[in-house]
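Quick check before the chapter quiz. The format below is the same one you will see on the exam, so make sure you can read both the input and the output lines.
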Amino acid sequence: MSDRPTLLLEHHLKELKLPSFLREYRKMAARCAAEGVDHPEYLFRLAELELIDRHQRMVERRVRAARFPSVKSLDTFDFPAIPSVNKQLVMELARCEYIERKENVIAVGNSGTGKTHVALGLGLAACQRGMPVAFTTAAGLVHEMMEARDERRLLNLQRQLSRLKLLIVDELGFVPLSFTGAELLFEVFSHRYERGSVLVTTNLPFDEWTEVFGSERLTGALPDRLTHHVHILQMNGESYRLRHNRENVASQAPDGPEE
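Here is the expected output.
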């Protein structure tokens, strides 16, 4: 009979979906008994553990759903290497208030200056706040939409995109788009206007976007929607990859002849 309360407690904790309570209650009870902690403090500590674990599991689900190519935080971004980027603005954006206001972010700069890293860091920050996020390249999103259109599920894909708090579109401008692809991408951006945030990384200034979209009509209308409520991150500088390659070559070069 003495085991019955324990068995019932564990059953109830499983039914209530409190895995951290279930896993930790015995160890926490022993610790609190040794410290002379009262029952409310004991329950508080267990509830805190449950909340911490639940938040971590939620973040992990958001990160998986976002389909980041890699998980990177802003803590590991080398701000001094790219002096053109406004660190204060980036850290302010990491608070994700711009997402609540349905504003956009555009990171503009030459290749290899960390635009994708910053985008991933801001995406991770949004996931940590429980926001639905998706990461894609511009070419990848266009391909997915054209495939969905051919399979008559474009409307479903558009609904999925509309549920996102933040859509990250990487590498806009790296690959020219077909006329159909440009129109589909334009439709995504237009639909999100004042409904959800978009974060775009691009190596092209606005006046060169015609090269990507191939239409002055689309190129003229798109910046109006993206830049109405926008934060611009200027990220021009020396490429990380080129600098690291040069440093590696220099470190591997044989020493000069001995004198």
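If your answer matched, good. The mean pLDDT is 86.
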